[in-house]
Specification:
This protein is about 30% helix and about 25% strand. The chain contains 5 helices and 9 strands, in the order E-E-H-E-E-E-H-E-H-H-H-E-E-E. Bound molecules: S-adenosylmethionine (SAM).
């Protein structure tokens, strides 16, 4: 994961699909207990870590990202924002990028995006952020949805009836499908969100987690060191 510099004391951070917000708690500690946080999740949690973030300026939004209008969130107004997530499942990443595009179109400034991805098999054409690219590939919406399902081959364990060659072939196909989906997202971040640097990095070994891809984009007046 990228290191967040402690030089800036008033970072505006949005955690998408925050869950219990444990990740933001560690970031808050890493920033020597500074920063402002907006935690977004559609589910209610016991908010275990919210109490530790009390001293930070923070807001928890219980909302589906699909319905979020970021321009209406007062804490974010007028500040460059950093966005991150630890394991944002499937289509939620596309919904986040779409939401950020709308925010930017209305004058918001996005400093960085760092999303640890998961569950590509839950992506779908309907919410995918780069439909024009899918059309350029010559895929129909249902073929794209099928491709999304194939990504589960990248993360499934070996079944008892499967020989090694079949297992490896399936895994290779699954990984390629994941890469294609993320390629479209990166292209969107570069071309639509105008991020100056976009990348897709493996942040831990696959022995630690098979969901080990970080999608990242940053703008040049950057506060995060990589
Ligand atoms: C895999 S969990 C990760 C939770 C937390 N980040 C963690 O690492 O423990 C994904 C989280 O994203 C939230 N989520 C998924 N889709 C969402 C959506 N469309 N809108 C808001 N939250 C969503 C889920 O409720 C869930 O809490």
């Amino acid at each position: 994961m990228p290191r967040i510099s402690v030089k800036k004391t008033s970072l505006f951070i949005l955690e998408w699909g925050a869950g219990k917000a444990e990740w933001s708690w560690y970031v808050y500690k890493g920033m020597q207990e500074s920063g402002r946080f907006i935690l977004i999740d559609r589910k209610s949690f016991k908010n275990k870590f919210d109490k530790y973030l009390k001293q930070a300026e923070f807001q928890r939004l219980k909302v589906d990202i699909r319905d979020l209008i970021l321009e209406n969130v007062s804490l974010a107004q007028g500040h460059p924002i950093i966005n991150y997530s630890k394991h944002l499942c499937g289509r939620a990443t596309d919904l986040t990028l779409t939401c950020l595009k709308e925010y930017q179109a209305n004058g918001g400034f996005i400093e960085g995006i760092y999303i640890a991805l998961c569950c590509h098999q839950l992506c779908c054409f309907e919410d995918y952020v780069n439909k024009p690219l899918v059309q350029q590939w010559g895929l129909t919406s249902s073929e794209f949805d099928q491709m999304c399902k194939l990504t589960s081959w990248a993360v499934n364990g070996k079944r008892s009836h499967m020989d090694e060659a079949t297992f490896e072939k399936r895994r290779e196909i699954g990984l390629k499908c994941k890469k294609l989906i993320d390629y479209g997202r990166m292209k969107f971040m570069k071309e639509e969100l105008k991020m100056s640097h976009v990348d897709r990095v493996y942040y831990v070994a696959s022995e630690v987690s098979l969901e080990n891809v970080l999608l990242m984009g940053k703008n040049c007046n950057l506060c995060c060191n990589l």
